[in-house]
Amino acid sequence: MCLAVPGKVLEIEERDGTTMASVDFGGVVKEVCLEYLPDLRVGEYAIVHVGFALQRLDEESARRTLDLFAELGMLQEEFGDPWEAATQAGGAAFDHLDGLGGPREAGR
Amino acid sequence: MKYIDEFQDPELARRLLDSIHAAVTRPWALMEVCGGQTHTIIRHGIDQLLPDEVELIHGPGCPVCVTPLEVIDKALEIASRPGVIFCSFGDMLRVPGTGRDLFGVRSEGGDVRVVYSPLDALRIARQNPDRQVVFFGIGFETTAPPNAMTVYQARRLGIRNFSLLVSHVRVPPAIEAIMRSPACRVQAFLAAGHVCSVMGTGEYPALAERYRVPIVVTGFEPLDILEGVRRTVLQLERGEHAVENAYRRAVLDEGNPAARAMLDDVFEVTDRAWRGIGVIPDSGWQLSARYRDFDAEHRFSVAGITTLEPAACRAGEVLQGLLKPHECEAFGSVCTPRTPLGATMVSSEGACAAYYLYRRLDVAAPRLEASPVV
Ligand code: SF4
Q: ipTM of this model?
């Protein structure tokens, strides 16, 4: 949960008076609130935590971090299906950490 | 010596390690505050690549782990009520309360939903005006601003069927509590980078000065950790105790002013109990008076629930760096991720889970075989 993941802003729109963006995390696209980084523009990168952009990041370090997270399976941990993980429970719930790899969209 | 082929830049890793090895002349104990850093360290065997003199002690920085049992029990109670939709981040599902967990409440018919963002919970509230929607608001300074914004939006939009079960915690008072413990061995801190992305570095100079302890703001990738350790060791060897920012790409000195302003508006500082550790003064946030209406504890009258933690679990000592997870008698026998006694074993950021997952897997399947470094 504490993992903050870098993502790239694809699209920005106002919704109910709140600035929201579609953000791409190495293939997984999520809705992200930009209220804490109102100057963020399409094409820029930011560190995102639980659906909120918290700090700008330059493209190169964002890409490096995403690659690393994907390699370690951490994106799946962040965006994967928690019910599935909890059902499997125990050690098996964490197998994906050990090399199964990339991100997988699960609902949204 | 282990190998580091998993590092994204093994050459740079080697240079950082060489420089740490060259600098060290005597034993030092450093605490990495954040559970995410603990996982990077164990996953990559960074503790084994470092000189024997440098000991890494795992800190209390796992929000799931430090959430007190009584708050979990309050969550279970609220989630079991008819008409309630209880929303939480996924990693709280299997954290044991007294006798059961949120996952169990769901299989007994409770409407427990996992959300990616607190704003998802607010959307669920708007879609279900005849139900009460409660979001489980735990976490450090990184998670508190999203939750604060959600409550602010609920108030602004007049959404009355939404509330927050709040158990937010703050890092600097925990660092202070660790330094004040008579058993404390910590000589320097690797501060949690993403907490500082929000809060900046302003809270640390006073701590560094008061306890004469170096504090280096550190990121989460293996190279970040090595650089944090390198800077910390250089300071210790020189007898310095400054605050340094080794995570400039994500941390500005002032943090995120908009997020901090929202925190000040929605929350107020309060004493808070940490699981296994006890109450630390000023170490938490609760909703400020203007937002009290959104406090689930009051809305559902669970403020009276208090519970004691099981004595067998030594997570409190693990979280304060007094005990390594495998030194706990229950570790790996009665206590496993499948049958966790404490939250530190169930959380994906918990120190006990990190030891269980990686150290043991290392033994079963050695995998770091290529490109020797030192
Ligand atoms: S191994 Fe289990 S019982 Fe021991 S401290 Fe960790 S969580 Fe608690």
A: 0.85
